[in-house]
Every structure is written in C-alpha cells, then in structure tokens.
Write a structure and sequence with these properties.
It comes from Durusdinium trenchii. This protein is mainly alpha-helical and about 190 residues long. It has 10 helices and 3 strands.
C-alpha cells in the first residue's frame, strides 16, 4: 500500500490523506477498543501519510452510553490508557489475567508514540461531517485553499471549514452532544 500511495503522489502530483474508520461500537468492549487503537497506530506507521482516525457511527454508541466505561472524550482522545488497563483487570473476562502484561505493553507503546486520537463522525450531523472534512483538508494542506470550497449560498463556509480544522475536540464533542440531545427530543 505504501508503494501505491507513493506512486500516486509522484505520478499524479496528489496530496493524499489516509482516513482510518473505526466503528465506535468497539468502545463498548475495552479489548476491542485497545485493538482498534493499536490498529490505527499501525496503519499510521505503515502508510506514511497524513492520517485521520475517525470513530464512525457515533450516533449508535450514543444510544448505549450506559455500556461505556468512560466518557466519549476519553475514547476520542485516547488518553491515559492505564485507566483502561485497570478496567480490563477488574472485569471477569477470561483473557484478563492471561494477557495482562501484553495489554500493558500495547498500551505503553500507544502512549509512547502519542499519535492516535479520533474524530467522532455522525453522518447525520452536518457539522460533524464538516469537521472530519476540515481535519482531512488540514492534514493534506488543502485547508489553506479554503476559499475554493466555499458554498456560494453560504459566504462563511470556507472560514468555518478552516476553523473546524483547528478547533478543540473537547469543545466540539460538547456541541455535538447538545445537537444529538436536540435530535432525540424531536423524535
């Protein structure tokens, strides 16, 4: 895959960005989530491209927040995996004791690199989709050409796309949660 992307970049003068989609329902199971984070790190290292990790179907996991061990911010930010390891040890999962050291080493490796974080994506939420697009455009350098993606009916769309590329994930998640609650109330 690396050779293919290098050839595309050279031959067609493209600016590529890798978008790695992880199903957000994997957050419900700590083992699957840790595997997904490790897979994201592996893809980042192997592809050698600007990389955006996306937690897709975030609206589905919002219906199961009681099943989550941590807040959505925790899963999106991939911060302090020692808390996740503690959760793995306190569950009665048959692999908890057997893979305790392996899980610790994987978590340590992920934290040592410090590269993995996720953008939440709810395809039904326009602002959410624009934020992921903004992150992609930031990663490959197209954000500097935001005036080219302006919507003629919306004179500030290029500015919003630029702001979405650089805004704080925590603030965005709060705004998303508010919009999600409004959609639930409208049902």
């Amino acid at each position: 895959m690396t050779k293919i992307t290098q050839q595309l970049t050279k031959a067609l003068d493209l600016r590529l960005v890798a978008v790695h989609l992880i199903d957000s329902t994997l957050c419900v199971d700590a083992y699957r989530y840790l595997s997904a984070v490790f897979l994201s790190l592996s893809a980042m290292m192997q592809l050698e491209l600007p990389h955006i990790n996306v937690l897709s179907k975030i609206d589905m996991v919002m219906d199961h927040t009681d099943d989550l061990s941590f807040s959505l911010d925790y899963y999106a930010g991939v911060s302090d995996l020692s808390q996740l390891l503690w959760t793995l040890q306190t569950t009665r999962h048959p692999m908890s004791e057997k893979f305790k050291e392996f899980n610790r080493l994987i978590a340590e490796l992920i934290e040592d690199y410090g590269l993995v974080s996720f953008e939440p994506l709810d395809i039904q939420d326009k602002e959410c989709a624009l934020r992921v697009l903004g992150r992609c455009d930031t990663a490959n350098g197209h954000i500097m050409n935001s005036e080219k993606v302006e919507d003629p009916s919306d004179p500030v769309s290029g500015v919003r796309l630029f702001q979405a590329g650089f805004s704080d994930a925590g603030e965005f998640l709060d705004e998303y949660l508010e919009r999600y609650e409004e959609r639930l109330q409208q049902r």
